[in-house]
Backbone:
């Protein structure tokens, strides 16, 4: 310490300290804002779009057409927006495993970076719903659980079941379970209406209400089974099965034991 | 004074004033036969007691009112939501009342077990022919109890006024409305105006806790008094006749077993209620007519009705300003009406076919009444097929099936499978009779192979015990009714068509593999 403090009255000490401070602030800033900075430059964005186009040509164009214009077996992607791509690809629904009934959730084929590139490419074709940012998805702060439950029962429960466990639709299609789904994907699904799901535009359900719905779903997901084993939260079918098999089953077993002759 | 002497003086005091000693002695020594299947009705009885006890507990807090309140209880996801007082109080029972949720779950599980035990008990009575004379009346009381149980259960399911309850009530309203001409008036009458109104929950509450339990108590009392008076049936066997009852006296053996069994039934119900959630009303949310959940089902005893309604094709006719919804009327009212009437009348139908007007206290082995057993299997198949369609959406999602495939499968299945079950069961019964005959004639296969001196291999058969042989040959095989078209004086009988039908059915009913006769055995010995 003494060796440094010897130079504290040196004429270069002031400018040197100023330089040091500037350097520290600059470095901190550049590190902190590195990611956003990388995406904001237009050169980077066009690079990402180009990368997305390459992935699209390899993985998607055989069904959706070389320019995403769609074909007989797959819809046009012009104008579906980045949100749609992020939902479909990010949840593994696209590329589809088979063309039978509906695309099901599976392990995503593309990583986050590739998905973002694909989304950027599709978004570049025509304007559409964008991927909601972290700040728009603060459902813990902006949502209300009770109101979300009311909205959920009004708009979602008829397909996704009262507890978001999913339900059957016609011809083998189904509304998937909402348990364990990323808030971002729930939001994107409401905005884009994938597969059999209708679009819930911001006029039908405001962004704030969407956050309430997400908050309710997350609360249902976290809620412990207050009455014991949940039996799947699917209503009286499993309850009846258990009543017969375990309830009456045990009692018949006891009856057999009671009626046995003492030997 | 010793304890015995003191007890004796108390007993003497009571006897001198009531003369109960002789009656008590006679009845406490009454003999009951022992078989596990005779305990199924007891399970139903004990479940009923559990329902009374747990239900009484629930009434302390339940507020059967459709008055709108704002929820302020401890279940956060519903905070500030508008709901009926009934639903709010059901939530209060679940979350704030000590032991309330457990009691609610005991009540609901007991209801499911009650209905399951009734059905199992009824199956035992049917397949063993215990409904025959003199017990036809008690059979009808049993059908009454089953019907009341379905209604009572449905009302209980409707009371909490959650989303699932309301959906059920909505379907009940649709079924009332489906009655031609008077339907809409009746619905307005029942609901005190347009659906849902404010009077339905208070009304069904009174019916659920007062009227139907009262009817239950009366019918159960009659049911048990008849069992007491007519004595219990027993399975056939050596020493058991139409004129005796072989078993244990009521006191102490049967009393101890039955008393202990009550606590076991209570224990199993409480165990289920403690470990398995049933009807988590807080997840369903309050009922409003605009909402519905995917996979809304009734409890299992209504599931087959729901399945029937779900498979009915959408047919409606409009005539003279009235709409007739066949898709509700037929599966919701006509088919259940036919089924329950048929069930109630079955003892009379069977005795008409067989012409058997005698008393029966010995039970049939199901295989020895192939037609009855086949009919029972046919009915059960019908109920199973419709029950599967009642859960078609849950089955579709959990087994990766298409709801349409299940619906079409059951639409055809409901016509094809029951008759198929009839034929297969009847063949099985006849084959079992054949096996019985073999067993009596040639004995049990021991699995021991014997090589004879000239090289032939034979399996050693072991004669069965005389008790077993008695069991396999003691049943009667009545010949079919002979109903000639002309009577003894050469005059054609009235009702030729009816007679023809009766004799045809009688022939089919009497179809059996001839049981081993004394002559058969003599012939065998002769060999």
Residues:
């Amino acid at each position: 310490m003494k060796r440094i403090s010897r130079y504290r009255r040196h004429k270069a000490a002031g400018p040197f300290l100023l330089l040091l401070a500037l350097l520290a602030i600059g470095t901190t800033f550049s590190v902190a804002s590195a990611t956003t900075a990388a995406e904001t430059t237009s050169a980077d964005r066009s690079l990402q779009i180009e990368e997305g186009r390459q992935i699209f040509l390899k993985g998607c164009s055989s069904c959706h057409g070389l320019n995403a214009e769609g074909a007989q077996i797959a819809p046009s992607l012009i104008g579906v927006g980045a949100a749609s791509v992020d939902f479909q690809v990010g949840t593994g629904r696209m590329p589809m495993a088979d063309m039978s009934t509906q695309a099901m959730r599976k392990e995503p084929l593309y990583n986050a970076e590739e998905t973002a590139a694909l989304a950027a490419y599709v978004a570049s074709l025509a304007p559409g719903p964008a991927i909601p940012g972290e700040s728009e998805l603060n459902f813990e702060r902006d949502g209300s659980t009770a109101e979300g439950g009311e909205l959920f029962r009004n708009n979602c429960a008829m397909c996704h079941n009262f507890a978001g466990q999913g339900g059957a639709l016609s011809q083998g299609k189904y509304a998937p379970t909402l348990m364990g789904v990323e808030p971002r994907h729930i939001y994107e699904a409401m905005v884009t209406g994938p597969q059999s799901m209708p679009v819930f535009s911001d006029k039908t359900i405001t962004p704030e209400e969407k956050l309430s719905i997400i908050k309710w779903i997350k609360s249902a997901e976290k809620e412990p089974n207050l009455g014991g084993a949940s039996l799947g939260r699917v209503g009286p079918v499993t309850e009846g099965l258990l009543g017969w098999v375990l309830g009456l089953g045990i009692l018949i077993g006891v009856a057999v034991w009671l009626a046995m002759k003492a030997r | 004074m010793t304890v015995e002497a003191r007890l004796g003086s108390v007993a003497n005091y009571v006897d001198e004033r009531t003369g109960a000693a002789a009656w008590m002695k006679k009845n406490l020594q009454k003999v009951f036969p022992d078989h596990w299947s005779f305990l199924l009705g007891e399970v139903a009885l004990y479940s009923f007691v559990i329902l009374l006890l747990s239900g009484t507990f629930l009434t302390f807090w339940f507020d059967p009112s459709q008055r709108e309140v704002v929820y302020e209880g401890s279940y956060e996801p519903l905070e500030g939501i508008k709901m009926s007082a009934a639903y709010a109080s059901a939530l209060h029972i679940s979350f704030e009342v000590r032991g309330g949720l457990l009691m609610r779950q005991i009540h609901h599980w007991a209801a499911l077990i009650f209905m399951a035990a009734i059905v199992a008990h009824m199956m035992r009575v049917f397949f063993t022919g215990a409904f025959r004379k003199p017990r036809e009346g008690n059979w009808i009381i049993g059908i009454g109890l089953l019907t009341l149980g379905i209604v009572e259960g449905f009302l209980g399911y409707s009371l909490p006024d959650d989303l699932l309850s309301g959906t059920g009530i909505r379907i009940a309203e649709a079924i009332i409305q489906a009655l031609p001409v008077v339907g809409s008036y009746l619905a307005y009458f029942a609901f005190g105006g347009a659906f849902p109104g404010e009077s339905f929950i208070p009304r069904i509450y009174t019916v659920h806790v007062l009227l139907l339990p009262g009817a239950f108590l009366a019918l159960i009392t009659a049911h048990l008094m008849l069992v007491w008076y007519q004595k219990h049936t027993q399975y056939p066997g050596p020493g058991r006749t139409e004129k005796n009852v072989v078993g244990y006296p009521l006191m102490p053996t049967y009393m101890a077993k039955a008393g202990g069994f009550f606590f076991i039934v209570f224990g199993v119900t409480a165990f289920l209620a403690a470990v398995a959630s049933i009807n988590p009303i807080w997840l369903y949310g309050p009922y409003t007519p605009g909402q519905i959940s995917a996979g809304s089902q009734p409890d299992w005893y209504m599931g087959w009705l729901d399945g029937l309604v779900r498979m009915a094709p959408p047919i409606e006719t409009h005539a003279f300003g009235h709409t007739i919804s066949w898709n509700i009327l037929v599966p919701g009212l006509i088919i259940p009406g036919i089924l329950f009437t048929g069930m109630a009348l079955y003892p009379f139908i069977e005795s008409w076919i067989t012409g058997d007007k005698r008393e029966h206290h010995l039970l049939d082995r199901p295989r020895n009444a192939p037609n009855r057993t086949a009919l029972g299997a046919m009915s059960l198949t019908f109920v199973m097929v419709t029950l599967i369609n009642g859960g078609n959406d849950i089955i579709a999602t959990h087994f990766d099936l298409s709801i349409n495939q299940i619906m079409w499968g059951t639409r055809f299945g409901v016509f094809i499978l029951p008759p198929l079950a009839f034929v297969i069961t009847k063949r099985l019964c006849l084959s079992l009779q054949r096996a019985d005959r073999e067993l009596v004639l040639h004995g049990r296969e021991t699995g021991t192979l014997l090589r004879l001196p000239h090289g032939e291999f034979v399996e050693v058969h072991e004669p069965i015990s005389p008790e077993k042989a008695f069991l396999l040959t003691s049943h009667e095989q009545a010949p079919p009714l002979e109903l000639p078209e002309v009577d003894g004086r050469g005059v054609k009988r009235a009702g030729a068509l009816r007679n023809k039908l009766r004799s045809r059915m009688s022939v089919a009913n009497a179809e059996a593999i001839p049981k081993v006769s004394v002559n058969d055995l003599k012939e065998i010995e002769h060999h």
User: Anything to note?
Assistant: Chain A is about 55% helix and 0% strand.
